[in-house]
Sequence to fold (676 residues):
Amino acid sequence: MAEPPTGTAPRDVVDTLLGFARTLRSAGVPASPDRVEAMLEALGILRVLDPRDVYWAGRLTLCGGPDDLDRYDCAFAAWFAGEMPRAVPATAQRRPELAVSAPLDPGPGAGEDSDGPDLATRAGADEVLRHRDVGDMTPAEREHLRRLFALLVPASPMRPARRRRPSSGGSVHPARTVRQALHDGGEVRRLLHRRPQARPRRVVLLVDVSGSMTPYADALLRFAHAAVRARPGSTEVFTIGTRLTRVTRELRLRDPDKALAASGSAIPDWSGGTRLGEVLKAFLDRWGQRGTARGAVVVLCSDGWERGDAALLGEQMTRLRRLAHTVVWVNPHKGRTGYEPLTAGMRAALPSVDHFVSGHSMAAFEELTGVIGRA
Amino acid sequence: MLQRVSEPAPTLPADPGALAVALEATGYLPDEGLATAAYLALAMHRPLFLEGEAGVGKTALAQAMAQVTGRPIYRLQCYEGLEASQALYDWDFGRQLLHLRAAEAAHAHEDTDKLEASLYDRRFLLARPLLQALEDSPSVLLVDEIDRADDEFEAFLLEVLSDFTISIPELGTVRAQTPPLVVLTSNRTREVHDALKRRCLYHWLQHPDFDREVAILRRRLPQVTERLAREVARATATLRTLDLLKPPGVAEAMDWATALHTLGARHLDPDLAARTLGAVLKYREDTDRVRALAGGTLFGG
Fold:
């Protein structure tokens, strides 16, 4: 572990730590001012000149999760070895290229906006648009479709909860009955009842953002945004590609464009390859088995192109099936006429899937909300 | 739930090192980070938020800290649907009603105000762990598996932990003279809200390294031979590298060593190891996997 710069120029402790906190924040650790205050308090109790004590005082107060620990270790080593904080964080560099429209660009020859019909003047355009394949749209049509996402009302599946609520029927609620009796001078005038409550079931969306899904990823993430906004407490969103990224927090932003930009900069593997099996395993190991997937409705949005071992994907899907309440697979290609699930990944996964639906148009998304809501 | 320690409360350890020594004396062997975390929690009156795999000793730390500080420990096990009436206090309605009837029969209270006041007396209040921990100050409060409770409960807990007071409308405010040492544990089945974490010291507990694990096994299970302890620790460490569904924790290692010892083992022999694998692996897939990996090479002495 590096020595703090005490022997050379004795810098003010508070300044040193504030600089360290800035380094941490740029490395992605949420070292908020009240946490820094706690660190100063902790250092007041420990020995401020002992590098191990400084290390632990900071780690215990500034970090908020296991993901922060590695970043903390790097930043600590760098700052107290006298290095400058890393000037440009990796995420800031990616922001411009991952603006909302970037993943939507269908590639060369897409700039022919003028060829498309003027949507604003066309009657019934929405209805036509609802059934169009997102992958075949012109940029102007997509722009219009984005506005339609605001109208999407995701229903949420319910599950019986342990907690019970007062009700006019059901079993007798002793505590309420007696409390009422106390009110009435000790007379039990009528029995009060309670019955089980229903609570929203957790919905987990896993969105494939690999190269082959590029035309649909933006629409699927908008769908995810609508779902998160409707039920922030019981919806989780992850993107899958070459690695797993949790974007729930980014998608909680109210403005869909801001939310997508934020999650775009959080996704390091946009338009990369797919290793579905491995990434699904990472999801189940780190989140799913601990509870995120337990009893949840898990929705996988992917075309099933697996570059890795399809057998691993099959194995992980069986594992997911055992944990989840319902497994839904959304494949945008399913909407094409004559589609058959022939890819190795899709064939390995299908036995463990409860509902296999298409997700290529607005109408398909509306149908998907129905499938999730009834699950 | 309540463990009174009879001897007078010892003075608090002077630094993390002294606390580590004191914890070791109770049979809990912390590493440097955990000792510092526990020491700061005591000195700063901040709750300690412990996360980590199941079976790494999160709950055991709270119990060891209660022993070291000589404070009583109150445990609140969280579960879905946990309500304030199960965490804070509840009125004993049955007894209140009885009291009312008795007063009526004896015509003891003509004054209704007095009667009502006597209904909401402290003796009709059922204290639950949070209130108990504040009333019986100083104490250790263990809030176990906070990730299992609903997020509404988290917000409520935040309120109690921020100023260590509970107000009961009918009785008044209960304030802890010394804030209790609060230990929150989580298995990370769900992300706990930042607002709660910010108020706490955060520590991620890892599986102990080889030497520490041997020391823990030797300390907790003095009947087990040194050789068996070392071999069980080594095999458990190997199992943790195998990418299992549920990597074994210290608790499983102890179970395994106990199982082997009960069967009369002085060292880890492959046959006995294969037969007692159920003590350390809790999934059929894991057991199959480990069996397939040639038990001889894995558990060879």
